[in-house]
Design a protein that fits this description.
This is Blue (type 1) copper domain-containing protein. GO terms for molecular function: copper ion binding; electron transfer activity. Keywords: Copper, Electron transport, Metal-binding, Signal, Transport. InterPro entries: BlueCu_1, BlueCu_1_BS, Cu-binding_ET, Cupredoxin. The chain contains 2 helices and 10 strands. The chain is of the alpha+beta class. It has one domain: Immunoglobulin-like, CATH 2.60.40.420. It has a 5-stranded mixed sheet. A 5-stranded mixed sheet has the order 4-10-9-6-7. It is globular. The N and C termini lie far apart (52 Å).
Length: 147
């Protein structure tokens, strides 16, 4: 039993560390009362986000209103390219992994939902679909955070 618990703890440690790194790399969860911009995002089965580039100001709190217009499950995960790539690799290793964090949303076909996020540092941040294979074929978008 001890061995099994140790294996589970070791396997979850990278997930916890990665989720923490994503939050710090790209911003923090935003407060709904602070929203200054709403950005509609469409996900589809062409493995594409629309728009594929958005611009926000550092310090701004944004509500992404995502809608899955496709016939398969899609995700929208906000993070640095390093964090997204690492997380996508983990998703390939552990198919069916389900998670819920403030910087991500998973939507079944026809579903809609939102993420409220405060971008705190100028630079480039991304959002991607981390369902295995989707990011790899281009289901990724860029957030340009200006001063």
């Amino acid at each position: 039993m001890k061995t099994m618990l140790a294996v589970i703890a070791l396997s979850l440690a990278p997930v916890a560390a990665m989720a923490d790194a994503e939050v710090h790399a790209s911003g923090v969860p935003g407060a709904p009362d602070d929203i200054v911009q709403v950005i509609d995002v469409l996900m589809d089965d062409r493995l594409h986000f629309s728009p594929d580039t958005v611009t926000v100001k550092a310090g701004e709190t944004v509500r992404f209103f995502a809608r899955n217009t496709g016939r398969m499950k899609h995700e929208m995960v906000i993070g640095s390219m390093t964090d997204l790539t690492s997380h996508a690799e983990m998703m390939r290793k552990y198919p069916g992994m389900e998670h819920e964090e403030p910087n991500m949303i998973t939507l079944k076909p026809g579903q809609r939902g939102g993420i409220v996020w405060k971008f705190d540092t100028p630079g480039s941040v991304y959002f991607a679909c981390l369902v295995p294979g989707h990011m790899e074929v281009g289901m990724i978008a860029k957030v340009v955070v200006t001063e």
